[in-house]
């Protein structure tokens, strides 16, 4: 009897797991990849793709069909749609397809890799909808960037620093760019905070500290679609373009609440040391739906590899292995197209040239090929 492995999510984590299983050519195993997007999206480069002319669509969007079609046709299926409900007791998932039909998928093994979305759904930092919607968000943001003379970036975490850095590198001498930081240090106070702030200042990015956004609204007295950004301290900034980068929301609404963390409303999936969902049989999770120890690309890669190995082991009647994380904790942040800041663990600072070479030069766009040809797994 054919055993079905359903993978929810066609991004970095889900596609990695799919490749890892399909490359093994497991007998009597079918992999069903469920994705709301027909294309794999390299969102790590979205911060640069909002600068007109820097990155081509085809460099960061590639059809999932192309990635899977290299395997025997009877070993996989691609379902375009979103998980609407999961029943871990009956081992079924309800999928709302892109064509407005609903499908009930039974599974033997289930992988939760639905990622997270930006708290601002119209921003392109994550693909929050279909391929067409993701393209529209990216193109629309790029067009507004080109037209704006005054830009406010809210959120001074990794994404906010990279967005402000790209804007400063390209437009620091022609546009006014302000980065809002809710605390007294960027990057959440990491050891790279001072270096990151210094690099941004070199690019003529102004940093406003203690600036928590309370609300935004159209500027009634201004023409041309300006936005008023009201800060918690009562100050109001009027800008041509407001780019929020604050916060991620895990895509876990389809999962019963008892399998989710209630800590500070995080709603991430509870897993054990094998990345198996607690109190669920043959259900695994990896990537931003777990965010353990934190959300991050290298962490997601390692989690996906571990989940794939454990799914394969359980299918073969073997015990799963404890999931392995990256050997070191790396935080790397590009600051424009020429510089970067980073640290290894909490004590080793990465030289700017190292961060540039590893990330800032290309934002790892060449890695997209590995996710399409399967060499990533």
Automatic annotation (TrEMBL):
Keyword Flavoprotein appears in the UniProt entry: yes
Full protein name: FAD/NAD(P)-binding domain-containing protein
One Pfam family it belongs to: Pyr_redox_2
Domain FAD/NAD(P)-binding: 4-293
Classification via Gene3D superfamilies: 3.50.50.100
Originating species: Parachaetomium inaequale
GO cellular component terms listed in the entry, alphabetical order: cytoplasm
Sorted UniProt keywords: FAD, Flavoprotein, Oxidoreductase
